[in-house]
Structures are given as C-alpha cells and as structure tokens.
Amino acid sequence: MKENHKKETISKKIKSLQSKVEKGDSLALFYLGIHYYAGKDIKQDYKKAFECFQKVATEDACNLWNAQAQFFLGKCYFYGHGKRKNITMAIQWYKSAEKLKHQLFDYKIDFDFHENNAKKGNAISQNLLGDCYFYGEGVPQNYAMALKWYKRAAEQDFMDAQWNLGYCYSCGFGIEKNMKEARKWFRKAKTKIENEINKKLFCL
Q1: Which one-letter DSSP state was computed for residue 120?
Q2: Is the dihedral of CA 80, 83, 84, 90 positive or negative?
Q3: pLDDT under 50 in the chain at which residues?
Q4: Domain locations in the chain?
Q5: Does residue 77 sit in helix, strand or coil?
Q6: What is the pTM of this model?
C-alpha cells in the first residue's frame, strides 16, 4: 500500500508540473526538464529534457531559471545528452548563462574589497575577481589574471570557478587552449551540479 501511495504521489507531482507548463509557466518547464534529465519521479529521457531546457533558454526573458536552463542546455551539448555532442555549442550556452547571471545580479562589485578577500583565500571573492578581470569590470581586461583567480577558487572546489576555468582552457583565454584540462574542470563541476540537482529535486 505504501509503495502504491508513493507512486500515486509522484504521478501527481509530475502532472502538477505538466499542468503548469500547459499554462505557460516557464519555471515549471525548467523543473520538468530537470526531472527528465535526472530520471527523478519519471522515466529518464534526455531528449525531452533537452527540449524543455531549450524552450526556457531561448525565451526572451531575464530570470534565474533562464540562466539555469542555458547552463543545462550547454551540459546536454557537452555530454551529448538528448542532442549530438557539440563542444562549441556547449561553450556558447555556458557563457550565455554566465552573462545572464551577470545581468541578474548586477556585477558592479567592489574590486578592492574582493581583491583583499581573495588574497585571504576566499573562494567566492577569488571567482568574482576572476570575473572582473575576464569582463574588464573595474579593472583593465586581463585573461591571464582571470585564469589565475578562477584557478585558485576552482582548487577550493568552488563550482562556478571550475566551469569558468574549464571555459578558459577550452577557448584559450589567458593560456594555451587545452581540451584535456577543460574536460577535467568541467567534470569536477559536473559532480557538484549533480549534487545540487539532487538537493533541488528532493525539495520539490
């Protein structure tokens, strides 16, 4: 009886998301994509997950789930999940997600404050300092310096920095292009993001 009740509850959860999607709820569409991607409460289907992420990622909107959908679209392209593997497209969507996050959180940050904290070993400030150098915000653009600070934060297991470092290696920003190193850092970040997915789905 308990198992049947669990299946019924799960079914209602997915149906509730699908109902919201039919009404044009893009956040529900993103979460439905997450369920398909992870195979949580529904049969795993990378193709359907890709379609959900693509619809949300290409909306003319500026919100957090659009950025997350763009990130997962890049992930699908990177690993060939639901679409043929395409590293170029993966990188394009990863950076699109990063730029949207910058718009959302208005990265006009206090350079001196974060430089001081970065030197003390704060991974968040190290990553933000890397962003400053990468985008030329508050300081002249310098890819080598961006790479330096992304690497320091990435080595502290900071996920955003790991993706940023992988991107630098994949495109040759601040260092010679090295896809082996790029994949290494993307894989480290992948483990972190999958843990975050499981936490989010547990709370849905």
Answers
A1: T
A2: negative
A3: 1-9, 200-204
A4: 61-203
A5: helix
A6: 0.56
